[in-house]
Each structure stands twice: as structure tokens, then as C-alpha cells.
Design brief:
heterodimer, A: mainly beta, six-stranded mixed β-sheet, five-stranded antiparallel β-sheet, B: mainly beta, seven-stranded mixed β-sheet, four-stranded antiparallel β-sheet, 11 strands, 0% helix, 50% strand, globular
Chain lengths: 111, 115
């Protein structure tokens, strides 16, 4: 039962443009959401997170938006750089429970 | 480098066999988590240990077991292996019990291939 869904397996964006990665979840009890980034042959690394009491969190070029009524979150990368090419995993959690990950979206940023 | 180490990096074995995957957490981290990433699946949480004790259990098969030792390293034992157990196995660690705001730091993973 996949509670966190990333419906786009891949995304290609030109350097300098905005990358928007989407994530949907089904469990309304989730209260914390995270994005992890993964390069080949490495483990996932934490990128940015957002609590359910917020609808936006920004960290440099990365912004995460949360729409609780739609059970949807998105990660915006502006401007996109070739080094951002990686697999991005969305994850969700509720207090006291483990992280639930999506299947990932592979982002390719072309020069 | 996350500070989490996993050995071996690659493992090839046959069905029915048993293997042990090893994880050393970041210095100072008390929680260790194990995840499985199959070909068409996201990261599936298997089990968490905190300071030597089992803390949380996810979709871990009965053929799989884990433990965390006094020096805080952890081992994941996979037995009676099946073809479907072929996957990437990640270990992660965090400083405390694993509250939602704690960052989990992932190791590079062990790629298991069961033939």
C-alpha cells in the first residue's frame, strides 16, 4: 500500500529553468514531509522538510510547498543546475512512526 | 560522505542462502534504520533499533532479522534467500529516538543479487 506517490518517474529541465517535482500522499495523519536527493552509488541525502503546520519552506534554491487539503506537496528548484540531476524522493511521516517514501523522480538538468 | 558505512557494497549469492549486511552509524548516533529498495519500489522501511533495542518494525519478512550491538553497529541477516530479495539495502542513522524532525543519514547501500 503506497501511501506516498510520485507519479512522474522522470523529468527533464533546461539549466536555469524551474524544476517542479510533485508528490501526493493518502494518509491524512502525516504531519511531516521531507525531500531526499540521491546520486548514483550513494545513499539518499536530506534536502528539505516541511511541517504540516506550514504551507511553504524555503532553503536557498529549494522551496517545498504543502497543500494539505489536496494531500499534495511539491519541490521547486530555481534556477536548476546540472548538479541537481539526481533522483528525488518524497517522504512523509507522522509522529512516532517511520518514514514512508515514494518511488522517486529522476531529474535531468540539461545545459 | 554521510558518516554511515555499509559493508559489503555488493553481494551475489544463490537462492536458499543466508547473508549478513553490516552497518556502522555516524559517530554519536543511537538509532539505526534498515530500508529495502527493490527495482520498482521506493524505499521500504524494514526495522529501527535505538541503543541496542528494537524500536519500530516495518515491512520486514520473518526470514529477515536484525540486531544492534553494544558498539552501536547493526547487522541485517537475510536467510532462505529468494530471487525477489534482490534489492538495494540501505542503512540510516539518526541521533535520537527518531522523532519526525530528526534527520536520517543514509549509508551508500549494499546491492544484493540473488541468483
Amino acid at each position: 500500500d503506497q501511501q506516498v506517490k510520485q507519479n512522474s518517474p522522470s523529468l527533464s529541465v533546461q539549466e536555469g529553468r524551474i524544476s517542479i517535482l510533485n508528490c501526493d500522499y493518502t494518509n491524512s495523519m502525516f504531519d511531516y514531509f521531507l525531500w531526499y536527493k540521491k546520486y548514483p552509488a550513494e545513499g539518499p541525502t536530506f534536502l528539505i522538510s516541511i511541517s504540516s503546520i506550514k504551507d511553504k519552506n524555503e532553503d536557498g534554491r529549494f522551496t517545498v510547498f504543502l497543500n494539505k487539503s489536496a494531500k499534495h506537496l511539491s519541490l521547486h528548484i530555481v534556477p536548476s543546475q546540472p548538479g541537481d540531476s539526481a533522483v528525488y524522493f518524497c517522504a512523509a511521516s507522522r509522529t512516532g512512526y517511520a518514514l514512508n517514501f515514494g518511488k522517486g523522480t529522476s531529474l535531468l538538468v540539461t545545459p | 560522505d554521510s558518516g554511515v558505512t555499509q559493508t559489503p557494497k555488493h553481494l551475489i549469492t544463490a537462492t536458499g542462502q543466508r547473508v549478513t549486511l553490516r552497518c556502522s552509524p555516524r559517530s554519536g548516533d543511537l538509532s539505526v534504520y534498515w530500508y529495502q529498495q527493490s527495482l520498482d519500489q521506493g524505499l521500504q522501511f524494514l526495522i529501527q533499533y535505538y541503543n541496542g533495542e528494537e524500536r519500530a518494525k516495518g515491512n520486514i519478512l520473518e526470514r529477515f532479522s536484525a540486531q544492534q550491538f553494544p558498539d552501536l553497529h547493526s547487522e541485517l541477516n537475510l536467510s532462505s534467500l529468494e530471487l525477489g530479495d534482490s534489492a538495494l539495502y540501505f542503512c540510516a542513522s539518526s541521533v535520537g529516538l527518531g522523532s519526525v524532525i530528526e534527520t536520517q543519514y543514509f549509508g551508500p547501500g549494499t546491492r544484493l543479487l540473488v541468483l
